[in-house]
Amino acid sequence: MLSESEFASRLHTNYVPSDGEISQIKQLLVKPQMELLALEKEIQRFQGLLNNLFLKRDALQGMLKAHEALISFPRRLPQDILQEIFLHCLPTNRNAVMSCKEAPLLLGRVCSNWRTIVYATPQLWSSIHICMFSESSDIPLDLDIYDRTYHTLSKHLALSRYQAVRDWLNRTGSCPLSISYYAVPIELRWDDIGHEMGPDHIIKILSLFSHQWRDMHFSMPPENCREVLECLSANNAPILRSLSVTEINHLTSKTLLDMSTTPIITPDIQSLSLFPIPSMAMFKYLSETCWSRLTRLSLNCDVPGITTSLKLSITLSVLRHCPEITHFWLVIPRLDGPDDYRILKGPSVTLTHLRSMIISTVNPVQKLLDCLILPSLSSLAIDLIQNNELTFSIHPFVSRIGEQITSLTISCSNEGSRGDLRRCISYMPLVKKFHIVRRDWFIIPLYQFDEDHTEDVNYLLYDETLEMLTPSKDAPTDSIWPNLETLECDVDAVVSMERVLDFLEARNGNADVGIAQIKRIKLTLHILVPRMEANDARACESRIEKLRKDGVKVDISWAKNLEIHVLSAWCGIESTGHQEW
Fold it and tell me: Quick check: helix, strand or coil at residue 400?
């Protein structure tokens, strides 16, 4: 045994054997080396046997699983049950995207049986988000390809997408359709004799299915809207329930269309959004029609050639004809002409069912707001440009309805936002949900593609704000907004993770004195907020985990860039589902 050799005490040392000892060690190693060789051969033999056993086992397992699959429960599900399951795979907060990464296309890639069922279920294809681009579009910066290659690629993609849209809609049968169409804004093109080019082939396809239109969202350059608006009459779109038409191109000053020469929107519509209102004729039509079923109305009153006071007067007339309205969104982005508000005189308008209002304006709107009686209003979003007259003018309205408000959304985009927040806190003590947004939240998607747009500075959410909302240890009952349950911030916040967690733990540790627990917090930390060291990060993660166990939905992350290029099927999806308001 080598372990009993006379050299055992010399092992693992720096001892140098003599020539005689070297010969002795070599003789000592002969027999062990032969034993090692025999062991390796035996191991190889057993390894071969083991490999054969593994192969037999895998083959047997494969056969067993294949036979078990024949009698599996999902395989025996009736087609109507599978169809119901497939319907629950569709997205619920937006339309389905033409992507093999999600239903319904993903379901059709599982097996031939599923594909047959998917293609035979019209409801699976009744919603679609379509993004269309032009081969003349600029090359996205994230695509490192040559100009000719890009335009060839985009042309092939466009042709295939036309056919894909046609095939998709042909599978819908007679189902009501929910469609969001986003046309990437581009420079206008002209042919050799000066005529404007670029017919919208997607609109031509969609118009063939106008009798099935139910919920329609169009975001496109104004010159492509004519065919859409011509399909809106009750004869062409008899089941139309929701319509959103948004201009997204700033490269032309054209208005959408002269609505006096086109069919009129059915008065039975329930949700209507025009960004901007296409013409004065359309504006007057809105004010003269009884919208007996309309519950959601979004108006950007950027109609050229009329004064602000007239805009407000017509807006008031529109509201008089909307007895069932529950959500109203008003944008007046610029000041036009002298402001003679005497035209607003008349009986007040009582909107019994109005629960949510969004106001974005650079104009004093006190006279308009004074004419509104809103007994059910509980959700308010306000965007006040830094304007002392405007800020002062809205105070009476905010103070009048303040104690009704349980959900508040406010812009953080100017230095006066902190003062606005303090006033809102004093007027609105019962807020349960607080949402901080950038200014273009109020006017999206009008300006979201402005080349000069820069990331908004967050003047509102900082450490001092959280400290103000944190109950003091000495007098927790004097807490600001004791009913606060939800805090969301869409603009990168320069606050520390520790400050956020201190706020959550303090709010959720005072339930015994009437302080509501925070149920949801969602914010993104600015990229300038330093990352935590490993030990601090683990400690914060432990605190977050405890909050989650207590039922708090915590969504806190660091900012990162996630851009979608124009060739993607997902492009424009964020513009189709604005905030829940």
Answer: helix
Residues in Cβ contact with 557 at an 8 Å cutoff, skipping those fewer than 6 apart: 524, 525
CB-CB contact of 295 with 271 (8 Å): yes
Cα 550 from chain centroid?
Answer: 27
Query: What are the two backbone dihedrals, phi and then psi, of residue 433, each rounded to the nearest 5 degrees?
Result: -125, 130
- Asked whether 497 and 523 are in contact (CB, 8 A), the reply is no
pLDDT digits (tens, 9 = 90+) for 165-212: 999 999 999 999 999 998 876 554 444 444 344 557 888 899 999 999
Token reading at 104: 């319904």
Output the pTM of the full model.
Answer: 0.77
Distances (CA, A) of 142 to 139, 147, 157, 527, 560: 8, 13, 17, 21, 15
Write out the E strands in 24-148: 127-132
- Report the alpha-carbon angle 369-375-379, nearest 5: 75
Confidence category of residue 561, pLDDT binned at 50, 70, 90 = low
**Residue 278 preceded by cis peptide, ω within 30:** no
Point out which residues pair with 196 in neighbouring strands. 190
* Residue 434, token pair as written in the block: 């607080």
Other residues' Cβ atoms within 10 Å of the Cβ of residue 372:
19
**Rg, Å, the chain Cα set:** 33
Alpha carbon distance, N-terminus to C-terminus of the chain: 85
Amino acid identity at 390: L
Q: How far apart, in whole angstroms, are the C-alpha atoms of residue 221 and residue 136?
A: 15
Contacts of 155 (CB under 8 A, 6+ apart): 135
CA nearest to 430, candidates 467, 476, 470, 378: 378
Angstrom distance (rounded) from CA 440 to CA 360 = 10
Q: Coil, strand or helix: which one is 367?
A: helix
- What are the structure tokens assigned to 452, written together? 């000069």
Within 8 A by CB and 6+ apart from 546, the residues are none
DSSP 480: S
Q: Give me the residue label for tokens 């929701």.
A: 242
Distance CA 442, CA 300 (A): 10
* The pLDDT of residue 1: 64
CA dihedral 57, 63, 67, 68 (to 10 degrees): 30
pLDDT bin (cut points 50, 70, 90) of residue 257 is very low
Domain ranges of the chain: 1-72, 277-445, 463-490+493-558
The HSE-up count of residue 221 (CA atoms within 13 Å, CB side) is 21
Closest CA to 363 of 299, 400, 288, 312: 312
The answer for 183, left when phi > 0, alpha when psi is -120 to 50, beta otherwise, is beta
Q: Which amino acid is at 87?
A: L
Under 8 Å CB-to-CB from 167, ≥6 apart: which residues?
A: none
DSSP category for residue 190: B
Report residue 51 as tokens. 């490999």
CATH number of 277-445: 3.80.10
